[in-house]
Amino acid sequence: MWLPRLAIDRWRLGEGCARGEGPDAEPLALIAETAHGPRIDAVNDAGLAAGARRGMMLADARTLCPWLKVAPSDPEGDLAFLGKLAVWAQRWGPWSALDAPDGLVVDVTAVAHLFAGEARLLADAHGAFAHRGLTVRLAIAPTAGAAWALSHFGPERAILQPGDDAAAGLEELPVAALRLDEEVLVVLRRLGLKRLGDLHGIGRSALHRRFRNRKSPAANPLIRMDQLLGRMSEPLLPVVRRQAPLVQRRLLEPIRHRELLDQVVTDLARDMARQLEGTGQGARRLEIGLWRVDGEVAVRHLELSAATRDPAHMCRLFSAKLDDVDAGFGIEMVRLRASWIEPLALEQGDIEAAAETQGTSLAACLDRLTVRLGEKAVRRPVLHASHMPERAQRWRPPLEREPAAQEELRFHARPLKLLDRAEKIAVLYATPDGYPKAFRWRGQVREIARVEGPERITPEWWRSKSTARLRDYYRVEDTAGCRYWIYRHGLMEDGRGGLPDWFLQGLYA
Amino acid sequence: MSATMLSDLCDVDALAAARSTRWRPGLAAPAHSEIFAGGSEGGGAGLALALACDALRSSLAEDKDRRAILWVQDRAAVRLTGRPYRPGLPVELRRRLIHVVAEKAEDALFALEEGLRCRELAFVIGEMTGNPKALDFTASRRLSLAAEKHGVPLWLVRLDAQRDLSSARMRWDVRAAASPPPRWNAAAPGTPSWRAELFRARAHAPGEWILRDDGRSLIATSPHSVGVAAATGDRPLAAG
């Protein structure tokens, strides 16, 4: 389905006039502001007759037609309207997809007999669109690409049966029917390839060589041709209507005090819980919006580690977020919206009341910690495939699934704790690579009583520079019994710097 | 009033009887313990983990215990002794650790209390540096009550701290001790050992032990027979 005049039809519906009457009787253009001045996005019939075209600069159009009226165009509004149309068009098929900016694809596989044939189906759809005052061109074809080509460039209400020879049926269409980028069309035109049939005339390998670097479908005519003929699959993204649960309270009297706001939030959380419970879902992300009398809006977000619909839990988490809200002259409307929901079976009891007697669940505990301390503060260590000790462990969110990793090697004796940055120490040792005898760390000299090593860990050549030095790790115990993990950074004669430095990286238990 | 006095007296008797028993490994974990340690050694957290693992092992069904553990550090503790390193943790705890870094002492106390109120945690370890104002007797009492109410033990490591007022049920002071020489390389550092002094406990008499965790159980030896302990290798002596 192609709505060639979507923008202007939508403007006309907004004005509430029929085609060619009232304001639509005079030349009008919808314009968008560009860096070079206003440019025309869409023109009505009278404007077309007067010589204005889509893509013209407004100044050029005004020289042709000085009395041309203008209105701003609204691409976002058009897209939203198209989304609604896509859902509406599901009356002719089980699912539909957007073909922005002005097309729709509806899957009518095995549906036509319900309307007594494809022709009657198209007539029905045409009538429905005409009744809504929208211009539409329709086509039915076995592939989305062929349907697009026929609706844009084929005869009115064209039907291509699955048994027909698609290549022969479409060969009269221009190459623009392949949904290609403008520059590719220019290339094809310069090559003298004007119709789809011309592409069949020359060898596939020649075309393939010409466009071998073009990977995106819109830049490669061969891919588009294969999609059109059904030799290559073309995934479409279906439009599914989904409504985010939303509850709001308009307040009779603007509120300025925290206790009243807490009461409103409690009420909203209860409403939200009821709404979520009805659909068997729980919220993962919540947004609360506070509309102030003086026109300001404060929005606070909340993300939960597990789906929940417990009102007391939501209130408790929001109460920390609402501390810094400035009420100004008062808040007149509060809206709570769950922008991310997940299915949640109807079994979870009341977290907050049970918390007093039997403790909270892990998810609720982590939510509270995250809200107060921040996302980065609550994490769990997971293994990472690396030789370097500081890279062998990464920090991930606590309830995330643990990635598959090789287990630690049992014969490695690793320290209980690792410093964020290895600290430089001064070491007394027998050069070039004897055992360390004593070291100075944080201003204190420690005699080494026992030592084991070295364990040599070479830099990862696939990611570090060629001048990175290797490390020789030693486990040491000083005379007081403290155990440390120290390393010598480099060798004496490795040609990658002067005398090697020593670092202390970890503390054993 | 007199009734309470009487019950207090009974308690005192019971307490005295209990106090005459010395602490030994394998007892149930007290709700709230404090471990004082130096900021330039890993012994505090090491002993806390060893004691916690010992208490878990002595409780039932350790094999099936998959509950998470919470480890809260304040920023200074991270800077002084670093973060927990998963390959170095005891094997049974590696997959279960959840780590929290708190910027201030107040945040650390909040995180500790939230952890104690969570029924799905096996135990909570805290590491706090010095004697922050927020960690006064009231805060310590809050932690004790929360831990007792919900049955989640707390092991609070105090790095470089003075022995201030606290309601902890057991208070330890720990220093590193020379480790027993390993079997195959006597020059290498061995199983971590600590000289731990129990200086205040509600149910036990004070005492001092050399403790070490050999992976299966916690072993306590008398501090005055270090030479003997070293000579016997890994075999435990009778608890001093």
Written account of the structure:
The complex is a heterodimer of chains A (509) and B (240). By secondary structure, chain A is an alpha+beta fold. Chain A folds into four domains: 6-77, 3-Layer(aba) Sandwich (MutS, DNA mismatch repair protein, domain I), CATH 3.40.1170; 79-229, no CATH class; 246-370, DNA polymerase, Y-family, little finger domain (Dna Ligase, domain 1, 2-Layer Sandwich), CATH 3.30.1490; 417-507, no CATH class. Chain A contains 15 helices and 19 strands. In chain A, the strands form six sheets. Chain A has a six-stranded antiparallel beta barrel. A four-stranded antiparallel sheet of chain A has the order 8-11-9-10, covered by helices on one side. The longest helix of chain A is centred in the middle third of the chain and has 22 residues, at 258-279. Chain A starts with 5 loop residues before the first helix and ends with a strand. Chain B contains six helices and ten strands, in the order H-E-H-E-H-E-E-H-E-H-E-E-E-E-E-H. Chain B has helices at 2-20, 43-58, 75-81, 105-116, 137-150, 226-232; strands at residues 32-37, 68-74, 83-84, 97-102, 121-129, 154-159, 170-177, 193-201, 207-213, 218-221. A nine-stranded mixed sheet of chain B has the order 4-2-5-6-1-7-8-9-10, with helices on both faces. In chain B, helix 4 runs parallel beside helix 5 (137-150). At the A-B interface, helix 15, strand 12, strand 14, strand 16 and strand 17 of A face helix 2, helix 3, strand 3, strand 4 and helix 4 of B.
β-strand amount of chain A: 25-35%
Counted up, domains of chain A total 4
Instruction: Tell me roughly what share of residues is in helical segments of chain B.
Output: 25-40%
* Helical percentage of chain A: 25-40%
What's the β-strand tally of chain A?
19
Structural category of chain A is: alpha+beta
Total beta strand runs of chain B? 10
Order of helices and strands of chain B: HEHEHEEHEHEEEEEH
Kindly report the name of the CATH homologous superfamily of one domain in chain B: P-loop containing nucleotide triphosphate hydrolases
Q: State the major sheet of chain A.
A: 6 strands, antiparallel, barrel
What gyration radius of chain B follows from the Cα positions, in whole Å? 18 Å
Give me the number of helical elements of chain A: 15
Shape of chain A: extended
Number of helices of chain B: 6
- Mean pLDDT across every amino acid position of chain A: 87
Largest interface: A-B, 55 and 55 residues
Ends distance of chain A: 71 Å
- Mean pLDDT across residues of chain B: 85
* Shape call of chain B: globular
Span of the ends, CA to CA of chain B = 42 Å
